[in-house]
Amino acid sequence: MSVFSQEEKEENRGSVEFQVFRFTNKIRRLTSHLELHRKDYLSQRGLRKILGKRQRLLSYLSKKNRIRYKELISRLNIRESKTR
């Protein structure tokens, strides 16, 4: 189930949206892995690092372009970050 079309993938690999999309796929894959292997602490650490990277990208996008941020969040089905 790809959210991005093939043309979008080729053009915008460096875009914030594409990076968040890739991180979200990694997060979902690692989460399902950790449900089976609860004591895999290295994967837990990797998951936390990816979550942090995705969070930083999302906060950057929300500051730069709120509309694109809202669209991305709804498209990827992730929660909005808590604002401080």
UniProtKB/TrEMBL annotation:
GO terms for biological process: translation. Keywords: Chloroplast, Plastid, Ribonucleoprotein, Ribosomal protein. Pfam families: Ribosomal_S15 (PF00312). Its main location: plastid. GO terms for molecular function: structural constituent of ribosome. InterPro entries: Ribosomal_uS15 (IPR000589), Ribosomal_uS15_bac-type (IPR005290), uS15_NS1_RNA-bd_sf (IPR009068). It is found in: Plastid, Chloroplast. The keyword Ribonucleoprotein applies. CDD domains: Ribosomal_S15p_S13e (cd00353). GO terms for cellular component: chloroplast; ribonucleoprotein complex; ribosome. It comes from the Eukaryota. PANTHER family: RIBOSOMAL PROTEIN S15, BACTERIAL AND ORGANELLAR (PTHR23321), SMALL RIBOSOMAL SUBUNIT PROTEIN US15M (PTHR23321:SF26). Part of the 30S ribosomal subunit. Belongs to the universal ribosomal protein uS15 family. This is Small ribosomal subunit protein uS15c. The gene is rps15.
